[in-house]
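Quick check before the chapter quiz. The format below is the same one you will see on the exam, so make sure you can read both the input and the output lines.
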Amino acid sequence: MKIIFAQGNPGKEYAHTRHNIGFLLIDKIAAAHHAEFIKKSKFHADIAEITSEGEKVLFVKPTTFYNETGQAARLLVDFYKIDPATDFLVIHDDLALPLGTIRTRQKGSDAGNNGIKSLSAHLGPNYTRIRIGIFNEKRNQVHDADFVLGNLTLHEKNVLPALAEQTKHFIDSFTQDNFQVTKVTVPIE
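Here is the expected output.
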């Protein structure tokens, strides 16, 4: 069993913010699999389930706020008795990477990301990550919190399909135990 865990904030006011890029991408990927999210209160999450190559895969959007997502992650890991180091993948935004850049890692520090701090506090630092770049020219003009909680521009929204396609590729390799640490840049027009 594998858990694909997206970072984001619940609520309509956050739906199209840069901090919710994980939610936006996992929504597109789940839809491509014809999977629907169902509220699972006991896990503090909305969960969609698929089977890939005979293995159960859960797409998870925690209903806690971004900085508290470790709570939902811990509940899922304990209930399903999975090893975060091999069976838990996180999709999250990254302020240090330019828009269109995706970097994968198998473990690491939080790099100042409070959601990752929460996950590491509850799971330890050894879990796989897909970091989605959100940096653009506006990044240095506003405070970090205002930037990540700002709504995506039309240009940023137009990049989402290419990001989703590449992210799906990484998820597929993760579920097949063939995940590679890499960095890619999707074409941006």
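If your answer matched, good. The radius of gyration is 15 Å.
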